[in-house]
């Protein structure tokens, strides 16, 4: 939506009594099509008498996600940044020179150049306690075990997390398709992103709903992750159930292709 | 740039030496703190777990207790402030009034651990240790406040007093059996302790009858102060968070008015203990912002945390600063965590990972421990 009317028509003196009822933001068509653009902000405020709504407008600078095509992705990897441009092979040198001429997008705050960054653990501030809980349990077992058993005990919380997640990922799931007016549940392969989503969703729902509400979430999550790592636990059971249902509806699989 | 290359060189050398002789760098086999000198600086010494149960029934930080459970050993780093403090303690003149030592420093730098090191040293030497683990717990979140029967304007804290007496008995049982009371104490209509009875009886009286616990604490402190000057035993008063005694509390009386610290009987008696009007021991205290009430987060200097009242009450004292980890201490801690398999991430072993740990933690011991827990 674009407003090309003068702003003064919309500005009225408003009395600031009560909470802002709603804020609507409309992008203005300006020459600048980069990440920073101007927006017209309409604030609807309620007066105490509930008789009328005052409208307050202002122009604000807003940074938003849609960049013009000229913008390039930022380089976050420390190793590539430390390399001297003269050392690179021809093609990469051309890329480097190209990047010096073009504008670069702002790096999102979830991306770090940290050595310890992990794409799956995207919010480490939340996962610190879970990873610590897993590590403490495993290390306690490790230090109490005999020499032969020590080799089998995995203490790295990241490997446990990744392994547990991959153990919980379903390969096929049932989707509803209508053929001849009737709806059939047919088994379909699950995409990578949906596998990840389902595994994490099941783990979190299991912890939130079926455990004691007085225990902390990180304790519950660490228990579930350890069980999933060993191939036991309710989440693995859920995955096996989904697979069984898909297996039982195998006859309808050809409906996927009409 | 040259400084950075030099430092990198030193770090690489340290890492190489550590790989050849891993235990030599960051561990020492000297488990008696009395023998810890500059030579043992930055090395970890372990306390046997049975001793930990006796000497530290309360007083160790929560995360350190979890670490003991995980690693199955209690290892403390010998640092310069502790060695300095031991030098002063060894050269105390027990005929002179007790000297007060105040450990101060930024949040997470290891003041409580240094205090625990001092407690271990004095316990090994046979001193009687009066360890108040966290004085802030006396001035906030206390349930069951009673009006004192001894002085009506004061307030009793039966739960805190009885819990403290239990732990005090565990750590000092053998000495408490030998010290006898010098006057008769009447707790209430039915209970009293005669003259000449061992202090253990009085302590047990306080633990079983919670209503008299605060009065028992007051009486125990009075007896210890009186008898310490005679020289039969040496007394260490170790208070963590002594700035709680002067300032404000978050407690309210039944009529919703705020309680000031002097109105709490425990705080009143402990303030008397921290005065330098007795001889035959030492007073080692810590000032702490972490559990304090109504103090700004970044304050760590003695005058900021103690306030005018507390500073003039504690004056004169010997201030000992507990700094963040130096390069050598950081390396020692890093090697210890690697040895105990606390740092599990593959990248944590690399020089890049180590540099990142140093940067993120800012050489602050508590921050380093929390970061290493995540990795």
TrEMBL record, chain A:
Keyword terms, alphabetized: Ribonucleoprotein, Ribosomal protein
CDD domains the record matches: uS7_Mitochondria_Mammalian (cd14870)
Source species, domain of life: Eukaryota
Pfam families referenced in this protein's UniProt entry, alphabetically: Ribosomal_S7
Cellular component terms (Gene Ontology): mitochondrial small ribosomal subunit
Protein's GO biological process: translation
Gene3D superfamilies: Ribosomal protein S7 domain
Residue stretches making up the Small ribosomal subunit protein uS7 domain: 150-250
Family: Belongs to the universal ribosomal protein uS7 family.
Protein name in UniProt: Mitochondrial ribosomal protein S7
Organism (species): Crocodylus porosus
From TrEMBL, chain B:
A cellular component annotation (GO) from this entry: mitochondrial small ribosomal subunit
GO biological process: apoptotic process
GO molecular function: structural constituent of ribosome
InterPro entries the record matches: P-loop_NTPase, Ribosomal_mS29, Ribosomal_mS29_met
Main location per the UniProt record: mitochondrion
Similarity section: Belongs to the mitochondrion-specific ribosomal protein mS29 family.
The protein's name: Small ribosomal subunit protein mS29
Keywords: Mitochondrion, Ribonucleoprotein, Ribosomal protein, Transit peptide
Tree of life domain: Eukaryota
UniProt cross-references to Pfam families, sorted A to Z: DAP3 (PF10236)
Transmembrane regions: none
Compartmental location: Mitochondrion
């Amino acid at each position: 939506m674009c407003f090309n009317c003068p702003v003064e028509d919309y500005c009225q003196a408003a009395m600031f009594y009560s909470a802002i009822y709603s804020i609507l933001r409309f992008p203005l068509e300006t020459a600048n099509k980069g990440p920073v653009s101007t927006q017209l902000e309409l604030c609807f405020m309620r007066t105490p008498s509930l008789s009328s709504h005052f409208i307050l407008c202002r122009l604000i600078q807003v940074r938003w996600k849609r960049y013009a095509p000229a913008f390039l992705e930022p380089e976050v990897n420390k190793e590539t940044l430390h390399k001297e441009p003269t050392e690179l092979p021809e093609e990469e040198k051309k890329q480097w020179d190209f990047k010096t001429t073009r504008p670069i997008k702002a790096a999102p705050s979830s991306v770090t150049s940290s050595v310890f960054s992990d794409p799956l653990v995207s919010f480490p501030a939340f996962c610190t306690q879970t990873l610590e809980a897993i590590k403490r349990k495993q290390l306690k077992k490790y230090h109490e075990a005999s020499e032969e058993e020590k080799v089998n005990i995995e203490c790295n919380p990241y490997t446990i997390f990744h392994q547990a997640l991959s153990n919980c990922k379903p390969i096929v799931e049932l989707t509803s398709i209508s053929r001849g007016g009737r709806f059939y549940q047919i088994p379909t392969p699950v995409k990578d992103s949906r596998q990840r989503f389902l595994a994490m969703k099941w783990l979190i729902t299991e912890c939130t709903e079926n455990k004691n509400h007085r225990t902390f979430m990180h304790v519950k999550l660490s228990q579930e992750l350890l069980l999933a790592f060993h191939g036991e636990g309710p989440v693995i059971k859920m995955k096996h159930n989904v697979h069984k249902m898909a297996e039982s509806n195998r006859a309808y699989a050809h409906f996927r292709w009409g | 740039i040259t400084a950075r290359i030099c430092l990198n060189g030193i770090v690489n050398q340290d890492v190489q030496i550590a790989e050849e002789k891993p235990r030599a760098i960051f561990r020492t086999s000297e488990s008696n703190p009395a023998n810890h000198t500059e030579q043992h600086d930055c090395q970890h010494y372990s306390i046997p777990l049975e001793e930990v149960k006796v000497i530290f029934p309360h007083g160790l930080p929560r995360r350190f207790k979890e670490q003991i459970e995980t690693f199955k050993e209690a290892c403390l780093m010998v640092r310069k402030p502790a060695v300095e403090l031991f030098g002063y303690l060894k050269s105390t003149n027990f005929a002179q009034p007790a000297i007060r030592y105040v450990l101060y420093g930024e949040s997470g730098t290891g003041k409580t651990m240094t205090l625990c090191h001092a407690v271990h040293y004095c316990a090994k030497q046979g001193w009687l240790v009066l360890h108040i683990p966290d004085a802030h717990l006396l001035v906030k979140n206390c349930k069951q406040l009673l009006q004192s029967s001894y002085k009506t304007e004061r307030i009793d804290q039966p739960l805190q007093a009885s819990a403290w007496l239990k732990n005090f008995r565990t750590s000092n049982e053998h000495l408490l059996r030998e010290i006898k009371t010098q006057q008769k104490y009447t707790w209430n209509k039915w209970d009293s302790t005669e003259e000449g009875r061992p202090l253990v009886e009085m302590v047990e009286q306080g633990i079983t009858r919670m209503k008299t616990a605060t009065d028992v604490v007051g009486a125990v402190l009075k007896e210890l102060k009186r008898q310490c000057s005679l020289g039969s035993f040496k007394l260490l008063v170790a208070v963590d968070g002594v700035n709680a005694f002067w300032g404000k509390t978050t407690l309210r009386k039944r009529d919703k008015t705020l309680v000031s610290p002097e109105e709490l009987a425990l705080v009143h008696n402990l303030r008397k203990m921290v005065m330098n009007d007795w001889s035959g021991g030492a007073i080692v205290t810590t000032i702490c912002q972490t559990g304090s009430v109504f103090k700004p987060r970044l304050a760590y200097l003695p005058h900021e945390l103690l306030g005018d009242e507390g500073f003039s009450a504690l004056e004169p004292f010997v201030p000992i600063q507990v700094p963040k980890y130096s390069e050598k201490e950081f390396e020692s801690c890093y090697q210890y965590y690697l040895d105990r398999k606390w740092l599990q991430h593959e990248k944590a072993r690399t020089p890049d990972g180590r540099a990142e740990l140093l940067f993120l933690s800012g050489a602050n011991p508590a921050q380093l421990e929390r970061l290493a827990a995540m990795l």
